[in-house]
Write a structure and sequence with these properties.
globular, Arylsulfatase, C-terminal domain, four-stranded antiparallel beta sheet, 2 domains, alpha/beta, 29% helix
């Protein structure tokens, strides 16, 4: 009887051990086959369409971004906005600024994202993502709930708004602080090392979040004027200080992608690089002081216009998307895509839910994966400041611009907007004018 009991106890122990050991591979497999990709969103400031070597710059070297493009998709008709706040609103909320009562969010402003809005971070956090932001926010800061950590980010290290919003460039007595979460940690800010420090914090976050899913939003403060570069990069580019700044960002991209590989997350991470708007070429007099020189601004490439204009050089910016196993490597597409589309696409890819109110973006997923030839985003409204009167519309290859007379361009044939075809196609002018007015009215009224 004693032998029988001993055998039963041994058998029971073996069965328990098998059950415990057997459960470990099951948990590991559950993590490795997760359908939720990690997301790394890299968002430069005032970097123009032609500032990267893979978009045609002759002397600035961006090997890391070139490699990213070679491993993914390079978009040549990607639209963000004409200036900082509209671009960040569209990216974080998926909506034109005309739909959002944001208020003033720069130095001294008490505005912010209303509680009725759902940020990209909030949508992803609801479905289990760990979230962090490094860099420039510019969507409200006076109240803690207006800061990134009040809008869905678990951690934030960065500036509350643009790096020029201080004397001598802006007549304000509000100090520009560097923040960590809700705490002000540095004043004056050492801007020479900002890109380096943003990157170091981003790398730490990826390492700490290696088991995923995680969402990292790195919004560089550069190349917004005044530009700065760390001593290890200063004087290294043939393109002067601007080249040093862009090449520092390229180094940052290398550090991010290298860390993804080292942590085993490279194949399950969507990496996106884009810019908020084009270069600030037509500088106001207030900016030409404190060491700022006209050639510190970026390069729109072959595009006409600049930041704060609705010619293509304002809202059309570089955009690279890499998603291993989903996006075919080495693709280039002239299909229309926008920052608002990124919002919808990333929420969907992460398994999140879109808000109940209207959004202006589309899910690029099927297009990115090659299931459809055309992007679902077939039009874009041009707003100079993000709100108020629409200045133009693009539908397919045609663009109508009405703010300075009537201009009609075929952007497939004439991306530099040299040939006004309005007199030749009055029927198309009428059609696009009506569509622009109808869509802008709906956006303004349908909150």
């Amino acid at each position: 009887m004693e032998t029988w009991n001993r055998n039963i106890r041994m058998l029971t122990a073996v069965l328990i051990l098998i059950a415990l050991v057997g459960s470990l591979p099951t948990q590991a497999i559950a993590k490795s086959t997760s359908t939720q990709p990690n997301i790394v969103l890299l968002f430069a400031d005032d970097v123009g369409y032609g500032d990267l070597s893979c978009y045609g710059h002759p002397t600035i070297k961006t090997p890391s971004l070139d490699k990213l493009a070679g491993e993914g998709l390079r978009l040549t008709s990607f639209y963000s906005a004409t200036s900082c706040v509209p671009a960040r609103t569209q990216l974080m909320l998926g909506r034109y600024l005309s739909r959002v009562n944001l208020g003033k969010t720069g130095a001294g402003g008490d505005g912010g994202i209303p509680d009725s809005e759902v940020t990209l971070a909030q949508a992803l956090k609801k479905v289990g993502y760990r979230t962090a932001m490094m860099g420039k926010w510019h969507l409200g800061y006076q109240k803690n709930e207006s800061l990134p950590v009040g809008k869905g980010f678990d951690y934030w290290f960065g500036l509350p708004y643009s790096n020029d919003m201080q004397k001598p460039w802006v007549n304000t007595d509000v100090p520009l602080w560097l923040y960590e979460n809700t705490k002000r940690i540095e004043y004056p800010v050492d801007q020479d090392t900002l890109t380096i420090r943003y990157t170091e914090h981003a790398v730490d976050f990826i390492r700490e979040s290696k088991d995923g899913p995680f969402f990292l939003y790195l919004a560089y403060s550069m190349a917004h004027l005044p530009i700065h570069a760390d001593e290890n990069f200063r004087g290294k580019s043939r393109a002067g200080l601007l080249g040093d700044v862009i090449e520092t960002i390229d180094w940052s991209v290398d550090q991010i992608t290298r860390t993804l590989r080292q942590t085993g997350n490279d194949k399950n991470t969507i990496v996106i690089f884009a810019s908020d708007n084009g270069p600030w070429l037509n500088l106001p007099e207030r900016m030409l002081q404190g060491g700022v020189l006209p050639w510190h601004a970026g390069f729109p490439g072959h595009l006409k216009g600049q930041k704060h204009t609705t010619y293509e050089g304002g809202p059309r910016v570089p955009c690279i998307i890499r998603w291993p196993g989903q996006i075919k490597a080495g693709r280039t597409s002239a299909e229309i895509a926008t920052g608002m589309d990124l919002y919808v696409t990333l929420v969907k890819a992460g398994g999140g839910k879109l808000p109940n109110h209207p959004v202006d973006g589309h899910d690029l997923g099927p297009f990115l994966k090659g299931r459809t030839k055309s992007s679902p985003s077939q039009s874009y409204i041009y707003y100079k400041g993000g709100k108020g009167q629409a200045e133009g519309i693009r539908v397919g290859s045609w663009k109508l611009r009405t703010i300075e007379g009537t201009e009609l361009f075929n952007l497939d044939i004439d991306p530099s907007e040299r040939f006004n075809r309005a007199e030749e196609r009055p029927d198309l002018v009428r059609e696009l004018t009506k569509r622009m007015e109808d869509e802008a009215k709906k956006i303004a009224n349908d909150k």
